[in-house]
Model the fold of this input.
Amino acid sequence: MSGEDAPTQQQNADEQKQQVEKKPAESPKTENKPDPPPASASTEAAATAAPTEKAPEEDSFSYRALVLTGYGGYDKVKLQVKKGKPALKNGEVMVRVKVCGLNFADLMARQGLYDRLPSPPATPGMECSGIIEAVAEDVTNRKVGDKVLVLNPSGLWKEVAAVAATHTFLMPERMSFEEAAAIPVNYITAYLMLFDFGNLRPNQSVLIHMAAGGVGTAATQLCKTVNDVTVFGTASASKHDTIREGGVTHPIDYRTRDYVEEVRKISPKGLDIVLDPLGGSDTHKGYNLLKPMGKLISYGAANMLSGQKKNLFAVAKTWYQQFSVHTLSLIQGNRSVCGFHLGYLDAETELIDQAMEAVLELYRQGKIKPRIDSTYHLEQVGEAMRKMQERNNIGKIILTTEPMKEEAKKDEAKKEEKDKKKEDKKKEEKKKDETKKEEKKEEKKKDEIKKEEKKEEKKEEKKDEKKADEKKEETKKEEN
Amino acid sequence: MSGEDAPTQQQNADEQKQQVEKKPAESPKTENKPDPPPASASTEAAATAAPTEKAPEEDSFSYRALVLTGYGGYDKVKLQVKKGKPALKNGEVMVRVKVCGLNFADLMARQGLYDRLPSPPATPGMECSGIIEAVAEDVTNRKVGDKVLVLNPSGLWKEVAAVAATHTFLMPERMSFEEAAAIPVNYITAYLMLFDFGNLRPNQSVLIHMAAGGVGTAATQLCKTVNDVTVFGTASASKHDTIREGGVTHPIDYRTRDYVEEVRKISPKGLDIVLDPLGGSDTHKGYNLLKPMGKLISYGAANMLSGQKKNLFAVAKTWYQQFSVHTLSLIQGNRSVCGFHLGYLDAETELIDQAMEAVLELYRQGKIKPRIDSTYHLEQVGEAMRKMQERNNIGKIILTTEPMKEEAKKDEAKKEEKDKKKEDKKKEEKKKDETKKEEKKEEKKKDEIKKEEKKEEKKEEKKDEKKADEKKEETKKEEN
Done:
């Protein structure tokens, strides 16, 4: 793994960097870049052109790349221009990137919570789609012009990427670059969780958290490829119609309902599979929702992500509440607990190949189709990350390497200003809300005090009644 | 579950008990028992004969049953004669038991280490084969004369058992009663572990501990129903030829070799599935042997069983070393840890039905065949348990309800005496060994002291050398 991370680090160290300011006048974005070859130019002759030879234009070769410059907020990912063509090592191909996918691991990485990304400065990005522009001499199964999906430990949020040929997969016909960039991480993750660890079969039930997210929508679609699978999906209420259309049988608004109760109402015996990207206390809840022979699959700690910057309290709480289990408990419950992270699987070429082949076959059969939430330009990566972190997406958020038009940039600047104002307003409102809440609390307290007083009064009344009764008894006795 | 255990308890409380002494003269074993109906007498008319009606011979109905009279050694399981026909509740059938299976859970139960058996006095036994002798009025899918395999929480080590019809399964044609009694626990356990939790597929590798045991031989056969599965099996060297014939690719003598090393030699990347019946430190070893996407399935704590009676030290050690795992560790390793125990699954009728149907179909296809190690009479249950606990079996140990012949009993008595002598001799030898070991330890200590002394001497020598060097230096300096 570390060996494969090396090129990224090396690039960061060796290449000249030049930060692209947001002001359009200073953006040298199309400077000196050779045109990407047309997709049809995939001849054998082109494939054998020695890519490592120093071409005359190499010195003037440049490309744009997003770079994480340090751990922190959205602004820590900057757009830079790199000079010099990436050198290809044995087994590598050069990909002209079209579209990149955004993942939770990228957000974690930005906060320094993901150890698979090399230390900053480094380019994030685990998946993309694009066209092969050059291949190393020993690569025989890829050729210039091949349209590919790419899955890599990191380093793909840029216009040109050198990656191992084994990390590329041929795109099926009629698949768009947008769809291709949305497939690798989410669908392979969902596929291996559901069909390897989960062993999903007809008539089973699955709980999918963040059902409107990238993995969530992929998992829902994959569940529907098996007969009569019941899907419980958590998402905020506004997304319920969409995820229901996508295949979720029972959408649950986790913000207003206790999802454990909601599941138990419909499925009193519990669930066959729980996909858990949250960690912390939600893992405990998921475990307790398992039927006999049920499988809990933990694949993240999204609960650690609270806000733009690392929130030590959220991290500590998630760690502290991290689920641990004894085999004796597993035995008595006939349960399984699994952990999954695609980032730690990149040496498993054969496993990934098989899963990808199965996923692409389902695509060809029309049984799955990536749902794109929104497309951003590289320049807008901050906005894209914010949307994902605030869970405002339904489906996949992607980045296109196509440069923004000048007008759009101006709009963008305006929008950013607007967004800032909005956020300030939100903060103010939040403060107001909190003040209101405090007031309500006070009122509640007062009410409670009143109630207590009433109770006391009632008690007194009862005592009086009792006394009266006793007196009556005594009178009766006396009468007897 | 507790509801289903109730009949056994009730029988124990309600019925007259009479302990059968081992002396033949006092054994009233065939007294007043009606002949079991022939297997061919399965007419619809017989099936509708009201079995709960008080027949004239009911009062004289008696049958033999093994009863755990208290927690402890092999002698705590006694053969008793019960009087009165067991009453059938709704949904139940009465089975004339032919052959019973012995399981590790029965040994644990005898020591008070298994909570699925009602408190003593109670009849152990989770599986048997036999012929249906009566059915409750509401039972429509079983009839008198049906040959069945039975899987029950407990209570089957007797000649006549009332069980839920859902706990019975029709025997395939040409299956013997011996084979039928060897199937339910071992094969359903192995099947669900390998194909539900384990999700076993071609080209994978599996570690089977106690590969010569009941679950071990069943699991080996089931592994061989999948293409190119590599089976590592631990067993003592004398059993290697047999288990190799049975399908184990790499037998490992766990008594003389470190099985972790042996596995790593052949499969450096590790294993896809580890079946772990041992618990304690072996669970840790199994976990560390897992490949990415590997599954550890813990299904017992045989390490707790050390000797005939409960060994508090072994129990405490196994508990203390009991494996527990954090989801973060699972995530980073892409691993799964599962717990399995058939005893906690008896409410899962559909699941068990499906697994049993699959197992019986494999039997019909000739792909699996229970391996019977040895058959004992009910009278010999102590001997049978000893053989299992000392792990001297290759395959299944079963009990037949056929009464022993008088001559055999005399031989048995002689054998028992011989065994006792053997055991006494063993104990003596063990003592001798321990004395020798102590002596060796003393010698080792002496050696170590000598070594220490030598080291000290060397140090002194070195010091002297250093001093000499320093002197030389000084001389040199002076010369300069």
